[in-house]
Amino acid sequence: MFPAKGESRAEELDATPSRQVGLDPDQPPYPSPPFTAPPSPARIRPGTFASGRDLAERKALVRELTVERGDPLKQFIGYVALVIGDYDEAIHFSVDTLGFGLVEDTYIEGQDKRWVLIAPPGATETKLLLARAAGPEQASRVGDQTGGRVFLFLHTDDFWRDFKAFQAKGVTFVREPKRESYGTVAVFEDIYGNLWDLLQLEV
Question: Residue 48's pLDDT is what?
Answer without folding.
Answer: 47
